[in-house]
Amino acid sequence: MMFCSLFVGLTLVLPIASQQIYDIWTTSSDQKTLFQYKNLGTNPINFTDDASASASITIDANTTYQEMIGFGGAMTDSSAKLLSELKSNDSGKYWDLMQYMFNSSDGANSAGMTFLRVPLGASDFSENFYTYDDTKGDVSLAKFDVSTAPSYLFDIIKDVQSINSVIKVHLCPWSPPGWMKDSGNIGGGKFTSSYTKTYAQYLLNALQGFKNKGITAYAISLQNEPENENDSYPTALIPASYEAKIGSELRALMDSNGFTDTIIVAYEHNWDDAGAYPVEVMQDAGDSFAGAAFHCYAGNVSDQDEFHSAYPDKDIYFTECTGTFNGDWWSDLQWYMNNIFIGSVNHNSKNGAMWNLVLDGEGQPLLPGSTSCGGSDPCRGVVTLNSDGSYTPNQEFYAIAQASKAVIPRDENGPFGQRIGSTVSGSNNLVVTAYETKRSSSQDQSRYSLVVLNQGDETSTAIQFNGKNAEYTFPTGVTTLWWYA
Ligand SMILES: *[C@@H]1O[C@H](CO)[C@@H](O)[C@H](O)[C@H]1NC(C)=O
Ligand SMILES: *[C@@H]1O[C@H](CO)[C@@H](O)[C@H](O)[C@H]1NC(C)=O
Ligand SMILES: *[C@@H]1O[C@H](CO)[C@@H](O)[C@H](O)[C@H]1NC(C)=O
Ligand SMILES: *[C@@H]1O[C@H](CO)[C@@H](O)[C@H](O)[C@H]1NC(C)=O
Ligand SMILES: *[C@@H]1O[C@H](CO)[C@@H](O)[C@H](O)[C@H]1NC(C)=O
Ligand SMILES: *[C@@H]1O[C@H](CO)[C@@H](O)[C@H](O)[C@H]1NC(C)=O
């Protein structure tokens, strides 16, 4: 009897509770509202039969696209160093910042970043040049040691994991050891193809070294920006045909050493060559690579379609773009949403990530002598951490946070959001992406979320879903909202 009445009660309540919008996160162009949460409480926005708004966003939940893994940035040695200093100077503030970046629980006041890119060895944001085996000619890798990386790097990643159990770690080297290249140096030079097997073994050792430290990678790439060399910081030229061969060797080693669940990602370079380099890697060794990763520094986001149309079943990742100081806050935020945190997703990316998560107010510490982020407008971290321990989340942070909220699992360790169809009519100022996040239990309703960039004036807009309309006036800025159905 008890069971029966409870069951009747639920079936009566659920349809009423569904399709109302209670939860809204907003970042406004005037910065008066910065990733601010509003719960509409007793006055939710209802989906009704009315439709009077001037613009509309139509959600098509029956058209599904890629499953997301979330948003974030890179934990460079420099970012980890600053965070580690903050931890020893003021651990309360450190944990506040870490929570604000990485707590992906539903309802937390946090960006809930779930994607962490980690350089293997030195990048241009390290204290010095190093790889895990800088002993010239050590082809047996007897001297290999991931602990040539600073211990604070591993410590900080483990702190991230202690807050976020679903963080996806994507490892990527900035260069093979110098002795595997024609330059003999970590800065610049071209990979020597006779070291293909040695380098694959080096990368397997790196995966194992991280695993032994408690960090199991979601993904590994073989070379950051393989078409760029510069002797002022760790870089290497690795042609597509070489990358394909290294990937095949590494895939076989990973499969026989307990890394079947870790994927290999190709390319890791700019949009402009999306139709060539990564396509060639897939042609040569498609079985070994799950997909390709893109950066923002040349070409544009629609170039991702060249790769997608050639290999529609392969993953797309967007793994690097940096902010620079002295730009306009709102122009920057619009650019990030248009091109990465909405744009790249609408061009099939499963994630979106900025470069350094944390730097200081001068874009330091940069690798001594590196020309990569110099000049009058240095690279900016997602968060600026000042020497007095105060910190400022930058426009990059708000772009990530607004996107991340829409796709983080609704249930602890439950599914991430999956992109679904959305179209805009009646406005040229609205840029939108939509997701469905399924639940751990099929009894529970899905969360449907929207990320909306409004580049114009406030616009009253109908959100059309399953034949009903909910009306909301989007402020100039970025809005994330959701409902259950
Ligand atoms: C939506 O419906 C609820 C009743 O379910 C009502 O209390 C609320 O005021 C309505 N919201 C708006 C914005 O009219
Ligand atoms: C994340 O935030 C929630 C809500 O603020 C809190 O209850 C939870 O303890 C945090 N999780 C972790 C792992 O720190
Ligand atoms: C290295 O990069 C700097 C800055 O972008 C550039 O001025 C320099 O020419 C580059 N060097 C090489 C060898 O490409
Ligand atoms: C993006 O690049 C393609 C060429 O790769 C070009 O046709 C297109 O106009 C560019 N789009 C924008 C918005 O710049
Ligand atoms: C930590 O404190 C030291 C000594 O006061 C200072 O030099 C350093 O900049 C501080 N670092 C951070 C990130 O707060
Ligand atoms: C999705 O498909 C189902 C069944 O075909 C239909 O009832 C529903 O209205 C469709 N939903 C949308 C949003 O088109």
Automatic annotation (TrEMBL):
Keyword hit for ATP-binding: no
A GO term from the CC aspect: membrane
Signal sequence residues: 1-18
Listed name of the protein: Glycoside hydrolase family 30 protein
Membrane-spanning intervals of the chain: none
InterPro entries found in the cross-reference section: GH, Glyco_hydro_30, Glyco_hydro_30_TIM-barrel, Glyco_hydro_b
Occurrences of domain Glycosyl hydrolase family 30 TIM-barrel (ranges): 70-365
Signal in keyword set: yes
Keywords, in A-Z order: Glycosidase, Hydrolase, Signal
Similarity comment: family membership: Belongs to the glycosyl hydrolase 30 family.
